[in-house]
């Protein structure tokens, strides 16, 4: 299958994936022009011959430029698009703190909160079928965020950064994984703040019901 | 318990942890002066009152400076220490490619290869007790590296970067997790190259036995 030509930055992603939303929201926030190509993971769109030529690991999101460059990994794409914008702290230690949240997100937050949501909401696994450690690990992760967000409005310094974008992606969908954000009031308020910054629908009120 | 005063950069880590070695090797490579404080995870050193004051998540590695700043997350510490050195590409797209490898390391490589090693080598779990998906995921991760390292000497561009340091940390110990690096000859050679850059003992020859 021939690879479709592109004429501008192209973001490949599945709209149900928080990871895929990170580069999209970042591009929207800083006013970057791009084409969005919807990729349906559950229908196997990441395993087609055409997609695997672009990214042999078969993962979205993926960024692609007309000169042939491609870049995988949600947080790496987000950082690259945001470089030079206010989304990245100019202070080098604050940047390091932002990086620490991004790595923590991929290692600790996503594998519990996003995975539980995927199993429960998309694969329709019953509570009994889901590894119980995902709930306890996810709650511990939300507790770490609650500690930070009780003391400050944002995750790093006193400004909205890529760390907030990365962490909100699945935190605002945590209720779909069975987590109750009303137990984490500072996180709950922060989700609303980030949604307002990004101009997103206020999803998290679902957890107040 | 009173927090011990420090007079220079202090790296807290467990020498059996690849994650903890990343900032240490980085500091050694660029000639940074630091004090190493050995933390024994298996003996509970990360759960003491003194350590939890420094890092409430109870994780190593942790970097601490005399002015009170602390920074968690192996890859974030490594990047912060390496800033301005040749370990970070000056080209912004190559830096993004390095970041992509670092996030992939924490999301895909570490949770299979390092976790299997910990279960098998340190917790002495039998093969039957270990989730079989760890072997298949770890082999897929090594396959992704093999593809890159068949085409190039280093993970990013044509230079040794933080991506090589991060990925070698557990790849050189993969045999302790039951992986056979001789099946991945380009990875095997690269491990030796990275070990020579860092002045480390050549551990990977164990897999040739």
Characterization of the model:
Two copies of one chain form a homodimer. In chain A, strands 2-1-3-4 form a four-stranded mixed beta sheet, covered by helices on one side. The model of chain A has no long low-confidence stretch (mean pLDDT 95). With 209 residues, chain A is of the alpha+beta class. In chain A, 49% of the residues lie in helices and 7% in strands. In chain A, a hairpin with a 5-residue loop joins strand 3 (62-64) and strand 4 (70-72). The first copy, chain A, starts with 9 loop residues before the first strand and ends in an 11-residue tail after the last helix. The first copy, chain A, has two domains: 10-82, Glutaredoxin, CATH 3.40.30.10; 92-208, Glutathione S-transferase Yfyf (Class Pi), Chain A, domain 2. Chain A is built from seven helices and four strands. Chain A binds chain B through residues 56-57, 69, 71-77, 79-80, 83, 92-93, 95-97, 99-100, 102-104, 106-107, 110-111, 144, 147, and chain B through 56-57, 69, 71-77, 79-80, 83, 92-93, 95-97, 99-100, 102-104, 106-107, 110-111, 144, 147.
* Low-pLDDT segments of chain A: none
Radius of gyration of chain A: 17 Å
What is the domain total for the residues of chain A? 2
**How do the SSEs of chain A run, as a string of H and E?**
EHEHEEHHHHH
What is the CATH architecture assignment of the largest domain in chain A?
A: Up-down Bundle
Q: Which strand-content bin applies to the residues of chain A?
A: 5-15%
